[in-house]
């Protein structure tokens, strides 16, 4: 408006007088609206401007509808199809029917959805999945209300070897690769047994040559020493058979679980005389669902240890030093760690 007032023609303003070239008719229209309605006439009028990307849906409604669609089996639309295509999505989302395939792709991109490579997924076959998790939740609430006398820990074992495992690291672009420094020494394996306090992040850790009944009982006793005032320690475990060995079960509190013990059929319910009686411990076992490692947060501690200490390690000629390095890594969590609780998912981000 100011430039036309200075004497420039609307055509000159449209072509050369603005930061961006405009159609001269646009500038003439602005002038006309200004003369008729003043400065208010230059505001966007109702119904003008760019239409919503998902019209007539709101972004939230559009996203919800898409997520419902891709969550269904594509075979319902095409019996010969196991993955969604743009064309099949256009068939199940009514307001996409009139759009071209590039148009559908553009809408999907605006919704924040993308075409991704799948990841392996295992579903627990445990019929008692929900009931087991509910029992664990009850124990967590009990320990939260009685922190001095009741403790809940997630327990598990993992192993590592003398030779380093392969992983990504920085290297020159081209044919250069990070190297895993192997040794000529015979392979050796060490087993780590750990327990993670669900409320404090405290870690009890022990390394053994073999994960036997006696080794597990020794570790359980170590947990009890860490919490001397606890009248009951809930030990949340996976369904490895040795966790339910008769000698171990006899050394613990009376087990109230209604779920079947996952032990081989040829195992006896009578404790073995070869092992003998073990010291009684105030521990009750809570079973995790079968084949559901994602329900045990301590699995992420093992991942952290592998990423920090074991992948591409340079101690393949010093087995003792490698074992000590893993122990030192675990020691940083003795007494509790908020960082660890965040890492394993026991505290919200």
Question: Explain this structure to me?
Answer:
The protein is α/β, with parallel strands linked by helices. The protein has 12 helices and 5 strands. It has a 5-stranded mixed sheet with strand order 3-2-1-4-5, with helices on both faces. It is elongated. The mean pLDDT is 90.
Number of strands: 5
- The strand line-up of the biggest sheet is 3-2-1-4-5
Low-confidence stretches: none
Overall geometry comes to elongated
What is the string of SSEs from the N terminus onward? HHHHHHHEEEHEHEHHH
Main beta sheet: strand number and arrangement?
5 strands, mixed
Distance, first to last CA:
53 Å
**What Rg, in angstroms, do the CA atoms define?**
32 Å
Which band does the percent of strand residues land in? 5-15%
Helix proportion: 25-40%
Quaternary organization: single chain
Class based on secondary structure composition and strand pairing = alpha/beta
Q: What value does the average pLDDT take? A: 90
Q: Helical segment tally?
A: 12
SSE topology:
Blueprint: H1 2-5, H2 10-17, H3 24-37, H4 59-70, H5 86-92, H6 101-110, H7 129-145, E1 150-161, E2 189-197, E3 203-208, H8 213-226, E4 232-237, H9 246-250, E5 283-287, H10 298-310, H11 319-331, H12 338-344
Parallel strand pairs: 1-4, 4-5
Antiparallel strand pairs: 1-2, 2-3
Short description:
This protein has twelve helices and five strands.
Task: Offer a few descriptive terms.
349 residues; alpha/beta; 12 helices
């Amino acid at each position: 408006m100011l430039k036309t007032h200075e004497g420039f023609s609307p055509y000159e303003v449209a072509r050369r007088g603005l930061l961006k070239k405009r159609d001269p008719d646009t500038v003439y229209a602005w002038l006309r609206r200004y003369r008729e309605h003043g400065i208010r006439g230059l505001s966007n009028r109702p119904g003008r401007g760019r239409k919503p990307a998902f019209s007539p849906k709101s972004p939230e409604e559009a996203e919800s509808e898409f997520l419902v669609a891709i969550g269904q089996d594509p075979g319902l639309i095409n019996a010969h199809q196991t993955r969604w295509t743009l064309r099949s999505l256009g068939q199940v989302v009514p307001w996409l029917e009139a759009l071209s395939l590039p148009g559908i792709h553009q809408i999907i991109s605006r919704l924040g959805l993308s075409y991704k490579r799948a990841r392996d997924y295992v579903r627990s076959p445990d019929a008692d999945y929900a009931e087991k998790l509910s029992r664990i939740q009850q124990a967590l609430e009990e320990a939260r209300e009685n922190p001095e006398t009741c403790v809940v820990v997630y327990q598990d074992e993992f192993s590592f070897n003398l030779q380093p495992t392969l992983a990504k690291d920085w290297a020159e672009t081209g044919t250069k690769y990070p190297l895993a420094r192997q040794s000529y020494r015979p392979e050796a394996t060490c087993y780590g047994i750990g327990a993670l306090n669900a409320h404090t992040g405290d870690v009890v850790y022990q390394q053994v040559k073999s994960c036997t009944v006696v080794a597990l009982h020794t570790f359980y006793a170590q947990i009890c020493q860490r919490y001397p005032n606890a009248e009951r320690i809930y030990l949340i475990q996976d369904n490895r058979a040795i966790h339910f060995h008769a000698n171990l079960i006899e050394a613990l509190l009376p087990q109230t679980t209604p779920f079947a013990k996952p032990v081989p059929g040829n195992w006896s319910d009578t404790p073995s005389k070869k092992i003998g009686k073990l010291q009684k411990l105030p521990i009750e076992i809570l079973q995790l669902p079968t084949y559901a490692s994602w329900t045990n947060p301590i699995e992420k501690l093992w991942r952290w240890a592998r990423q920090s200490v074991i992948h591409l390690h340079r101690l393949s000629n010093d087995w003792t030093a490698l074992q000590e390095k893993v122990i030192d890594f675990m020691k940083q969590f003795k007494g509790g760690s908020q960082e660890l609780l965040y890492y394993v998912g026991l505290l919200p981000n």
